[in-house]
Specification:
This protein has two helices and 17 strands. It is α+β, with helices and mostly antiparallel strands.
């Protein structure tokens, strides 16, 4: 991090400015995903006035009724497992579709683990609270839902996916999570609160900028006065 050339007071002010920029970026991304199903907001982790990283807030989002028979929302801490090109991934986004093979897949085409294969010309798809999938009354699969004692062992990877932070991390079979067909769990971002946080961040950023400017002006004045004395 570029702080070496700065005097002590400026380097710390510079770090504070960077912290507010990081906070602003996180809030902006949260607001951009207010309408993204299954999105979990990120919050900065402060150590004093310095941001040391970010933390995902895994609280439940509100349900939105869609009526779609392949829209499913999870109530509880569980995740859908998805087989992606990068390996097994986890998501809360239950907006699914059927591919040419009759598999239930995510919107980017990745198969949902346990969903099975739907027969051709199926007329009715029903999904039970325990994740069982029935095609015209016949069970064809069951979502293989998993839970994590601490969901922070997962890291965001884009497209609504979470990946293990370390090798060997595995979820346990879900015992408390239920499935609601015809609904989507929406983002857990509160747009009003995030907007308030954004305004506060902008004001704090402006304060740091003014401090930097005042130090620079004071340093320049001191240099000019020393120059006149010489």
């Amino acid at each position: 991090m570029f702080v070496g050339p700065y005097p002590y007071h400026l380097s710390h002010t510079y770090l504070g400015t960077l912290a507010q920029e990081t906070r602003m970026n996180l809030i902006s991304n949260n607001l951009a995903n207010v309408g993204t199903p299954g999105f979990k907001k990120d919050m900065p982790v402060f150590e004093g006035y310095i941001v040391k990283g970010s933390k995902t807030h895994h609280a439940q989002g509100a349900f939105q009724q869609t009526g779609g028979n392949l829209d499913v929302a999870l109530s509880g801490p569980g995740f859908f497992q998805v087989q992606t090109e990068k390996g097994l991934r986890y998501t809360r986004n239950g907006s699914f579709k059927i591919n040419s093979l009759g598999e239930i897949v995510t919107q980017d085409g990745s198969p949902v683990v346990g969903a099975g294969v739907l027969p051709e010309n199926v007329k009715e798809i029903a999904i039970a609270e325990d994740g069982r999938i029935l095609a015209d009354g016949q069970e064809v699969g069951r979502f293989d839902l998993v839970e994590f004692a601490d969901p922070h062992v997962l890291a965001k990877e884009g497209n609504g996916y979470f990946a293990p932070k370390a090798p060997g991390v595995q979820g346990q079979a879900s015992e408390t999570t239920t499935v609601s067909q015809g609904y989507l769990e929406m983002s857990n971002v509160d747009p009003i609160m995030e907007s308030v946080h954004l305004i506060d961040t902008l004001r704090t950023y402006e304060v740091f900028q003014k401090i930097v400017l005042s130090f620079q002006e004071a340093d320049q004045k001191a240099i000019n006065e020393v120059g006149r004395l010489l």
